[in-house]
Design goal:
Elements: E1 4-8, H1 18-34, E2 39-43, H2 54-66, H3 81-98, E3 102-108, H4 116-125, E4 145-151, H5 169-178, E5 186-191, H6 206-225
Parallel strand pairs: 1-2, 1-3, 3-4, 4-5
Length: 239
């Protein structure tokens, strides 16, 4: 059964978020094509992932010092109630990620990069050893597909004056690539100039914004409706 993990990281819960509109389109199309059973949703604004704390760091450093272990064996290493709480917050996020065939991320650009809400999730799921085979060092997300819905108030695409200001797309590609996701399995869909309808000095870009949004909607629909392609991924077992 195909599985989709859907993450929204826009701080805007008012209904005006373009990234949320596009991820909803993807999720609705995906469920129509593949059924609802494998769908998982996490709203990183309505239910924020706590930032890292001392207990998380202490537990992670212990593994880095004494040897990395798969998530199933980490519980026994917690030495305080704080470390137990830190791991209880972290383990479900890791499990959701490892069991997803496709990860859908709504990622509006905030200050040229990802939102703090998304960064907190990334920091927490990247617990030492959790996404890495302890025997080979290979990333465990090989075979996973990642779809990033990137929305930008301005224009940062290839050939634009601010192309070099995009620290969002290269960061997400580097992060998921390090976890084993093949470059061809990371798809980034961009809707640009989303502030053109709001900010007076961008009004002349409204036709470009409309074209960009229409293209993004078409690409999202095509990606979500594509046949599922599952590659076997084996999580490391206890040793």
């Amino acid at each position: 059964m195909p599985t989709l993990l859907h993450l929204d990281s826009s701080a805007d819960l008012s209904g005006g978020s373009v990234s949320r509109q596009l991820t909803t389109l993807f999720a609705d199309t995906w469920r129509t094509a593949h059924g609802p059973a494998g769908y998982r949703y996490r709203d990183l604004a309505a239910d924020p992932v706590p930032p890292l704390d001392t207990a998380y760091c202490a537990l992670g450093r212990r593994l880095e010092r004494d040897g990395l272990l798969p998530p199933a064996e980490v519980d026994a290493l917690a030495k305080s109630p704080a470390e137990e709480r830190a791991w209880a917050l972290t383990r479900p996020l890791i499990d959701e990620l490892l069991t997803a065939d496709t990860v859908l991320i709504g990622a509006p650009m905030y200050n040229y990069s990802v939102s703090a809400l998304l960064k907190a999730w990334i920091d927490r799921v990247c617990f030492p050893g959790a996404l890495t085979d302890p025997d080979t060092g290979d990333g465990l997300l090989h075979g996973t597909k990642v779809v990033v819905i990137s929305t930008r108030g301005g224009a940062y695409g290839p050939g634009t004056p601010r192309e070099a200001w995009d620290f969002q797309t290269p960061y997400l590609r580097a992060y998921f690539g390090r976890q084993g996701v093949a470059d061809e399995d990371i798809r980034v869909v961009c809707a640009e100039m989303t502030l053109a309808g709001l900010v007076p000095h961008l009004a002349r870009f409204r036709p470009s914004a409309a074209d960009s949004l229409a293209a993004a909607r078409a690409e999202v629909t095509a990606l979500a409706g594509a046949p599922a392609r599952r590659e076997e991924r084996t999580a490391p077992q206890g040793r």
